[in-house]
Design a protein that fits this description.
2 domains; 4-stranded antiparallel sheet; signal; binds 2-acetamido-2-deoxy-beta-D-glucopyranose; 9 helices; disordered C terminus; 19 strands; disordered N terminus; Glyco_hydro_71; alpha/beta; TIM Barrel; glucan endo-1,3-alpha-glucosidase activity; Alpha-1,3-glucanase/mutanase; about 500 residues
């Protein structure tokens, strides 16, 4: 999703952040009336060209709806299958009482295509599943500063509620109804991990956007993770991380305090950048990301967000009264960050294209910003003791009723999690994924494994299309879909 042009855009954002007077207060003025609040999730149509009918979207629609998500932001480029898939998605959304809207990706669309974009909006505007806000067609984007909004509206033949990913200091904020901030991760203002000199928090981004919006609705981002590791085996080589660690928990708390009109979860199914919260089994094609996505389910993040989404919709600043099922959610990277995989890593071989400036060899750029820890969030109805064992490291915590986060230093070996009360175990489980001191499939994998106690009923796995390019560029043996393979025979596996 990251174009080279974002460099300039982010420099603009950085200077704007610096320009915000210290006394600028966000106050209550930006906090939206609970009744108006909507939550979206970014959905990549670019990797779902393998779907054959509207029913192929039903599981995504049902899951998102049950979580409290109001609409999918359907990210579209200009792939030949785009309309086929949009038709399926709009139909499935209608069948499942969900909403959807178009999000134009300006990595592929050009700002001089305003009329054409307007016509694309018109093509779907009257579909029953189209999201409307204030009775207008809701439309968003990735990038797009400088598009002629009135020309786009005349192409659409009607008024629209336009909430693009314009950037403060770049796009004209007078022309729009609201704006999406994409930068859901702490960064350096130049699309990489923060440095001590250039350290921009997600909240800095919130402030810059709200200052530029002057009270217009803000579409605030929430993301759990960022790690990408494409080498010369693809033309879009890129290899970096943003600090993620406990971000999914801290950001949700930040958003409940902020109370923006709209929130967008980034993302449902962008496997390449590791910020998917949707299942691995959600049908998609492999862009080469299966190397770090295989055996790395994220559904626990989806479950963690549930009480936060309910609290946001109710206008509350705490998820504590919205926990209907007790759970422990945990996540960690599968290997310690110092592990040396240079001899076999995909990014060490060949001549990768670095026109984007996003390609680095070896450990992903920004790797030092990720901590060797196991991250744990407890969702409890009454206080309890959480016991975590990570390899040789063991710690126990007094957890309050409600949501709370803990960290334990990462230990190589098995990962165990338990809840007890009055000395009696209430629930416990051993993760299906050990932390290991070897290079899995030969590569540096800075994606996260996410698990839950109680454990999910089925093991979430990539389908055949989602794993099709696993071996491309690999320089070490790599077994497919290994999760749970070594479970005791008693489980029937
Ligand atoms: C950036 O700032 C945060 C606190 O706002 C701090 O925790 C982090 O260590 C800083 N990062 C760097 C690289 O200095
Ligand atoms: C790719 O470009 C970026 C930005 O210029 C640079 O920092 C990085 O070192 C380059 N990567 C390689 C492998 O040369």
């Amino acid at each position: 999703m990251f174009a080279k042009s974002l460099f300039l855009v982010l420099i603009g954002l950085l200077s704007l952040v610096a320009a915000i007077p210290a006394f600028y207060s966000l106050g209550d003025a930006v906090s939206a009336d609970a009744n108006d609040r909507l939550i979206f999730c970014h959905f990549m149509i670019g990797i779902t060209g393998n779907r054959n009918s509207a029913t192929d979207y039903d599981d995504d629609m049902k899951r998102a709806k049950s979580l409290g998500i109001d609409a999918f932001a359907l990210n579209i480029g200009v792939d030949p299958y785009t309309d086929t898939q949009l038709n399926f998605a709009y139909e499935s959304a209608a069948n499942n009482d969900m909403k959807v809207f178009l999000s134009f990706d300006f990595n592929w669309w050009h700002i001089n295509q305003a009329s054409e974009i307007g016509q694309k909006i018109k093509q779907y505007a009257s579909r029953p599943a189209q999201l409307k806000v204030d009775n207008k067609i809701f439309v968003s984007s990735f990038a797009g500063d400088g598009i002629d909004v009135s020309q786009m509206k005349s192409g659409a033949g009607q008024d629209i509620f336009f909430v693009p990913n314009f950037h403060p200091g770049q796009g004209n904020f007078n022309d729009i109804q609201g704006a999406l901030n994409w930068m859901a991760w702490p960064n350096d203002g130049n699309n990489k991990a923060p440095t001590s000199g250039n350290n921009i928090t997600v909240a800095d981004g919130d402030n810059a956007y709200m200052a530029a919006l002057k009270g217009k609705p803000y579409l605030a981002p929430a993301s759990a993770w960022f790690s990408t590791h494409f080498g010369s085996e693809v033309s879009y080589s890129k290899n970096w991380v943003f600090p993620s660690d406990l971000l999914w928990y801290t950001r949700w708390n930040e958003l409940l305090a902020l109370g923006p009109r709209f929130i967008e979860i980034v993302t449902w199914n962008d496997y390449g950048e590791s910020h998917y919260i949707g299942p691995l089994s959600s049908p998609h094609t492999d862009d080469g990301s299966s190397k770090w996505v295989m055996d790395m389910p994220h559904e626990g993040w989806l479950e963690m967000s549930k009480p936060f989404i309910s609290a946001y919709k109710a206008g509350k600043d705490s998820p504590d009264n919205f926990i209907d099922e007790e759970k422990i959610i945990y996540w960690y990277r599968p290997t310690p960050r110092d592990l040396d995989c240079d001899a076999t890593d995909t990014t060490m071989a060949g001549n990768a294209n670095n026109a984007s400036g996003n390609f680095f060899r070896g450990r992903p750029n920004g790797w030092e910003s990720m901590a060797d820890e196991v991250f744990v969030v407890s969702l409890l109805k009454s206080p309890g003791t959480i016991q975590v064992t990570s390899g040789k490291n063991s710690k126990s915590f007094d957890a309050k009723a409600g949501a709370q986060a803990f960290t334990v230093p990462m230990g190589v070996g098995q990962q165990k999690f338990a809840l007890s009360r009055d000395g009696k175990e209430v629930m416990s489980d051993t993760s299906l994924k050990d932390i290991v001191n070897k290079c899995i499939c030969g590569i540096y994998n800075f994606n996260a494994y996410v698990g839950t106690v109680p454990v999910a009923k089925t093991i979430d796995k990539l389908g055949a299309d989602g794993i099709a390019r696993l071996h491309e560029g690999l320089r070490a043996p790599c077994a497919e879909n290994t999760l749970g393979r070594h479970m005791p025979t008693a489980t029937g596996v």
